[in-house]
Specification:
Blueprint: H1 2-29, H2 38-62, H3 69-74, H4 81-86, H5 92-113, H6 121-142, H7 174-184, H8 186-198, H9 204-234, H10 245-270, H11 274-296, H12 311-332, H13 349-381, H14 389-409, H15 420-443, H16 449-476, H17 483-507, E1 510-516, E2 521-524, E3 527-539, E4 542-551, E5 555-557, E6 560-563, E7 570-573, E8 575-577, E9 582-588, E10 599-607, H18 610-627, E11 638-639, E12 647-648
Antiparallel strand pairs: 1-10, 2-3, 3-4, 4-5, 4-6, 6-7, 8-9, 9-10, 11-12
Helix pairs in contact: 1-2, 1-6, 2-5, 5-6, 5-7, 6-8, 7-9, 8-9, 8-11, 9-10, 9-18, 10-11, 10-13, 11-12, 13-14, 14-16, 15-16, 16-17, 17-18
Length: 664
């Protein structure tokens, strides 16, 4: 019965998506815009069908219904409740089911938000494009990725997920945040395609999608940070980013979306970058599909468990359709997209945003090339190659330093041009903050030209953002901390803090490995650790060795190693003594021999790594603040006609001015 209900939900969703898309397209083609509102009922039915399918799968997981093949492969009776719920997105078919659930939520929210404007050409075509994406994913669930296939002879217990996916609560949150980001770009993508179809290139479609883009971008960024935290806390290697293809798959659309978040402001204020912005949205959505292809097809190896499937060619084909459609539409509207606006000065806000976009594009290309090169090489030479961390670090370090410099500089710039004297005045205190940061870093033991420079630029970024926040708060009170400028500057502070943590933990860490008997100690970078003893027993049918280690001044911690009966190889579970100064990271190098009291203990000292997670939280706060609408009183409004004379009643032309207007 559960399988029947789930299959019914998928069928209802697919038929409703087809009905809604057909209704919208027919209404626009036949010149009957009033009929577009009928699509709202189809969207509601589609969402209800999707919810039914997801509810059926969760009931099957929670009730250990092993007659459903997905449950039998990926769950067990002993799986804790939180991980049974998370098993929905722990493997291929379930992850597609979560994707369509999030997608239906976004489409339903967009339909409700624009319900009064459904008859407008741009809104109608945007919803039709979103429903087209829904059709694709519902078709996957109805065919090659059917999550409700049944077994004639169900087992008494299931196989269970990869142990790495069920030993930390972050696995119940991290994938959901990633999907909220991935799938969220469907809404701005739909509006970008709709603008190309209708030829309506005014800034209204940007205003309609700005908050949707920010939500998706913020969720994807949060998901990436949570994934890095999970890797750090779970995998036992002491790092948080290995340039794994799955990591890169999430980073690629975030990079292009970050470029769009900045450049859309330029189009709204200066009518520049029309083609670039439309292309960025199409590329961002296409990269979410390409990332899905990488992680779901088995074409690249990864620590994440997504087995090989027939979905690879289908997803790659859908990616090709998106790219080809985007290229054709942009080429078709090429003449209409031309604008007379031009870059007034290099020392301007639009100049900084243009450089910002170019750098993000370079970063995305470098990551994409490093990720797909092994695949291309294997296709040509039939040899499996790997592109490692040195390539990414060497190629992206200069880009990162340049981006930090632009982040420090851009808040001090006006639109069109900024006199040298004005720049000097606005950058004085932020530059001083950067210089002080460099001095303090060297005093604390930092070394290396590029590392110290990057730390100084991080301080410069924070100082520049704090300056603009202070100006906004001085003029507009708490409202100066909200809106586009307030939220953007809080996000800049978050990036600066992340930069501190990333540079310090990457460049100045220490490690040691000791074979200790109970009562013996070892010291790494001034931190003494003492091995107190171990427990060796069975937990849920698996051998677990748990070691008690005292970290001087921090307390007692218990790293462990588990040999899962169904997995074979031992899995280390590290323990971390965290502080704002550094982390003492403890893990067992090997599982001890049975009956032995000696352990091989690995100790890593990671300076400022906690600042990574703190900066991620600040970044999320900045995104939330940027979503808050702000209203400025009429007496604060000014407008600047072409002559440059300031008149009452319109928006300012200096986004980086000392006025600190949150609308900028």
């Amino acid at each position: 019965m559960i399988a029947v209900l789930g299959t019914l939900g998928v069928a209802v969703g697919l038929v409703s998506a087809l009905g809604g898309a057909a209704t919208l397209v027919a209404a626009r083609v036949l010149g009957q815009p009033a009929r577009c509102r009928q699509a709202l009922a189809w969207i509601a039915a589609m969402t209800a069908g999707c919810v039914l399918a997801v509810a059926a799968m969760e009931i099957a997981l929670l009730s250990d219904n092993f007659s459903i093949a997905y449950v039998a492969r990926n769950s067990t009776i002993a799986t804790p409740l939180i991980y049974k719920i998370a098993t929905l997105w722990g493997a291929l078919e379930g992850s597609i089911l979560l994707w369509i659930l999030v997608l239906c939520g976004y489409v339903a929210a967009a339909a409700w938000r624009f319900r009064a404007r459904t008859a407008e050409p741009t809104v109608a075509w945007a919803l039709a494009v979103m429903l087209g994406v829904c059709i694709f994913f519902f078709a996957l669930l109805a065919g090659p990725a059917n999550p409700f296939a049944t077994l004639a002879d169900p087992p008494l217990d299931g196989g269970g997920l990869n142990p790495l996916l069920r030993n930390h609560p972050l696995m119940a949150i991290h994938p959901v945040m990633l999907y909220l980001g991935y799938v969220g770009f469907t809404v701005p993508f739909g509006f970008a395609v709709a603008a190309l179809i209708t030829g309506q290139f005014d800034t209204r479609w940007l205003a309609d999608t700005r908050r949707w883009t920010l939500v998706a971008w913020g969720c994807l960024g949060t998901g990436i940070m949570l994934g890095a935290w999970w890797s750090y806390e779970v995998l036992g290697w002491g790092g948080y980013w290995a340039w794994d293809p799955v990591e890169n798959a999430s980073l690629l659309p975030w990079l292009t979306a970050t470029a769009f978040v900045h450049s859309l402001i330029t189009q709204q204020r200066r009518q520049m970058l029309r083609v670039w912005n439309l292309s960025l949205l199409i590329v961002t959505f296409a990269l979410t599909i390409f990332g899905t292809f990488l992680t779901r097809s088995g074409v690249l190896e990864s620590v994440h468990e997504f087995s090989e499937s027939s979905l690879g060619p289908i997803l790659l084909g859908f990616f090709g359709v998106i790219v080809a459609t985007g290229v054709v539409l942009v080429a078709w509207r090429g003449e209409a997209l031309r604008t007379s606006a031009s870059l007034g000065s290099v020392w301007s806000r639009e100049g900084a945003f243009l450089a910002n976009n170019l750098l993000f594009a370079v970063a995305a290309f470098v990551v994409l090339l490093g990720t797909v090169f092994p695949l291309l090489a294997e296709a040509v030479s039939n040899e499996r190659l790997a592109v490692g961390r040195p390539y990414f670090d060497r190629m992206l370090a200069p880009v990162g330093i340049a981006l930090l410099g632009l982040m420090a500089l851009s808040p001090a710039l006006n639109w069109r041009s900024t006199p040298a004297e004005t720049r000097s005045q606005r950058l004085l205190w932020p530059a001083a903050a950067g210089a002080v940061t460099m001095v303090l870093s060297i005093w604390a033991g930092a070394h290396g030209l590029w590392q110290v420079l990057a730390l100084g630029l991080g301080g410069f970024v924070v100082g520049s953002a704090v300056r603009l926040l202070w100006l906004g708060a001085r003029r507009n009170g708490w409202r100066g901390l909200l809106g586009r400028t307030g939220g953007g500057m809080i996000a800049h502070i978050g990036i600066g803090v992340i930069a501190f943590g990333f540079i310090a933990s990457s460049a100045y860490g220490s490690e040691g490995e000791f074979t200790l008997a109970p009562g013996e100690s070892g010291t790494v970078a001034g931190h003494e650790v003492t091995y107190l003893g171990l427990t060796d027993g069975m937990e849920n049918g698996n051998r677990v060795v748990r070691v008690r280690v005292e970290v001087e001044g921090r307390g007692v911690f218990e790293p462990a190693v588990t040999r899962f009966a169904e997995f074979g190889q031992p899995i280390s579970t590290p323990s971390v003594a965290t502080s704002l100064v550094d982390d003492v990271y403890l893990s067992l190098a090997t599982i001890p021999d049975e009956g032995s009291s000696e352990v091989a203990l690995r100790v890593l000292i990671k300076p400022l790594v906690a600042w990574m997670w703190l900066g991620g939280a600040v970044l999320a706060v900045g995104v939330a603040a940027a979503l808050v609408p702000t209203r400025i009183g009429a007496r604060d409004r000014i407008r600047r006609p072409p002559s440059g004379r300031v008149l009452a009643g319109a928006a300012p032309d200096q986004a980086g001015s000392d006025a600190g207007d949150p609308r900028t």
